[in-house]
Amino acid sequence: MAWRLIALVLLLAWTAPTCRARVRTDLLNVCMDAKHHKAKPGPEDKLHAQCTPWRKKACCTVSTSQELHKDTSRLYNFTWDHCGKMEPACKRHFIQDNCLYECSPNLGPWIQEVNQSWRKERILHVPLCREDCEQWWQDCRTSYTCKSNWHRGWNWTSGVNKCPARTTCRKFEAYFPTPAALCEGIWDHSYKATNYSRGSGRCIQMWFDPAQGNPNEEVARFYAGARNAGVMPQGIERLLLSLAPMLYLWLLGRV
User: Based on C-alpha coordinates, what's the Rg of the chain?
Assistant: First the structure.
């Protein structure tokens, strides 16, 4: 019997680090493991223009924040003007979206591991405040695009994103008929449209007044607490279920 128990302990010891490696337990005040993110959030007093709300605690650098405001950024060689000049009122929302993605340390509860050449983590289903989503859609309705998912499928042969063959430039509302279609579809479900309002403590704000504090800190704490309360780490339950039959036989002395 002793050797069976020893074998079980060794098996658990070998598999537990694997399970832990798949789970991000640090959900608050963290930066993604991605192309331009800092390893840890910290002060960046000179963040540029629309990225300034994150200057007290940022995952982005000053140079990253400057690049985010360019029509074609060197960060990803991505241009907003793939179907002609994007309306300024529309473009400001994409700049703010990028500032949130690159600079915010409050997206931990929605960070997921990915296997991509340019990043190891992404965000998925971040609950976006209703006003942010609706205004984004409203201000972009008359701008033009050729795709409903900007995360993939571009023609990169020129070095920057171009519309793929057999696609047509149309107004945004043709590809995104509702605010939810825009917010959820454009970055492959990075965001989730919600009915929560700004200040509710239940949705992430792209836009906020830093003089009033960062409301996304409270939101991250809420979702981190909900995720951690009484929940086993991902992978542990499956491991225990798979070991149960073998453990039962071991205790009966049949293996």
Answer: 22
What confidence tens digit (pLDDT) does each residue in 61-101 have? 999 999 989 888 788 899 999 999 999 999 999 999 999 99
Instruction: Establish how many alpha carbons lie within 13 A of residue 47's alpha carbon, considering only the half-sphere containing its beta carbon.
Output: 25
What would the pLDDT profile of 96-122 be if each residue is shown by its tens digit? 999 999 999 999 999 999 888 888 899
pTM above 0.90, yes or no: no
CB 94 within 8 A of CB 80: yes
Task: Identify whether the C-beta of residue 182 lies closer than 8 Å to the C-beta of residue 176.
Answer: yes
Average per-residue pLDDT for the chain? 84
SS (H, E, C) the chain: CHHHHHHHHHHHHHHHHHHHHCCCCCCCCCCCCCCCCCCCCECCCCCCHHHHHHCCCECCCHHHHHHCCCCEECCCCEECCECECCCHHHHHHHHHHHHHHHHCCCCHHHEEEEEECCEEEEECCEEECHHHHHHHHHHHCCCEECCCCCCCCCECCCCCCECCCCCCCEEHHHHCCCHHHHHHHCCCCCEEECCCCCCCCCCECCCCCHHHCCCHHHHHHHHHHHHHCCCCCCCHHHHHHHHHHHHHHHHHCCC
Cα gap 139→91, rounded to integer Å = 9
Say yes or no to pLDDT of 35 above 90: no
What pLDDT score was predicted for residue 199? Answer: 93
